[in-house]
Amino acid sequence: MRQVESVSQAAYARFIGTQHLPGLDGLRCLAILPVLWHHATPRLLPGVLGKGAVGVDLFFALSGFLITTLLLRERRASGTVKLGAFYARRSLRIFPLYYVVLGFYALRALQTQAGSEVARHFLHGLPFHATYTANWFLDYAVPHPVMFAFSWSLCVEEQFYWIWPGLVALLPNRAILAAVMGGAVVVDALAEHAWFAAWLPSGSLGLRMLTSFATPIGCGSLVALALDAPRGFALGYRLLGWRVAAPLLSLLSVAWLMVPATPYVSLSITLAALVGAVAIRPDNGLAWLLERAPLRKLGALSYALYLLHITALGLVRKFLPQFQGSALVVFALGLPLSVVLAQAAHWAVERPFLRLRSRFR
């Protein structure tokens, strides 16, 4: 027993002292690939092949875990969380490329609005996209494609950034923070199952705002809160510290997707646990895959890939219309084109701003 405790103590010291967890870059790659596949399909496919949107849930779990971990470590090191510096770093990471891409969409819509209901709908919702509130105020129930629709997930993440860092700064007790986040997860689950229908009818703004919280973000945050404390880490290490934990959790995630009506809360917990299992020990059972250079590279570009993959897939469909109905062809050609666009965007837009982040550390 003492040997197990000493191993977990050494693992905790290593975890707390590690600035970068390379396996999480590989997980980002595993998140963006199914999203790209999901948008490459011309229609909803049956079974697991039609559930590529789960990649967004994995992104959410990663965001909740990483942001909470960074905030807690800053608070431990300096005794506080400098919210101004945090938001400066987040802004330099997120805003430049987002608004550049949004600007290009706006220019395209202005050129075609006269004969396009899609473009007019986008321009009407442009203020909501610009303020990360499209998931609250934009009407997605329209009989035509929604331009820039993928921004809903970025709105969810940005709204998480609006609230959670301030709570971490104000509430020094991890147990209270865990209770707040756990309560948010429970409320979201109840709202998704219409428990508040008497007060918040379907389609109401209040219900949209309440359900805009993403359960995987909450689960990822709870895992981060647990692993930040020595006793919580010791428990987490007993559960997730096995080398087989990460492979088994990845298989369990796929198993949840094979259920026709995938249990969302169970899937969210599994994805968050997978993130924790990859982070808790560098030699986890998926390290041989997640730490390969190509996956880490794609993971590092995942934000740009997310913003630009719809453009790449659209170009493939436009110039090769004979393959529009073939998801495999659109995906196979759209992936490398997405990487090229993402790398160009990284060099031209992201990298100059990322160099400024060191001023706010």
Task: Summarize the structure in words.
It is a single chain. With 361 residues, the protein is mainly alpha-helical. Helices cover 74% and strands 0% of the residues. It has 17 helices and no strands. The protein has helices spanning 2-17, 22-40, 54-78, 83-112, 117-130, 134-137, 151-170, 174-192, 205-210, 215-228, 230-240, 245-258, 264-280, 287-290, 293-300, 302-319, 327-354. The chain is globular, with a radius of gyration of 21 Å. The model has no long low-confidence stretch (mean pLDDT 93).
SSE layout and pairing:
Layout (H helix, E strand, L loop, with lengths): L1 H16 L4 H19 L13 H25 L4 H30 L4 H14 L3 H4 L13 H20 L3 H19 L12 H6 L4 H14 L1 H11 L4 H14 L5 H17 L6 H4 L2 H8 L1 H18 L7 H28 L7
Fill in the keyword field for this structure:
about 350 residues, mainly alpha
Quickly describe the structure.
The chain has 361 residues and is mainly alpha-helical.
Number of domains: 1
Q: What ranges have pLDDT less than 50 throughout 5 or more consecutive residues?
A: none
Please report the total strand number as a whole number: 0
Overall pLDDT confidence: 93
Shape: globular
Quaternary organization: single chain
Radius of gyration based on Cα positions: 21 Å
Counted by DSSP, the helix tally is 17
Through-space gap between termini: 40 Å
Q: Report the β-strand fraction as a percent range.
A: under 5%
The percentage helix is over 70%
Task: Label the structural class.
Answer: mainly alpha
Largest beta-sheet details: none
**N-to-C SSE string, H for helix and E for strand:** HHHHHHHHHHHHHHHHH
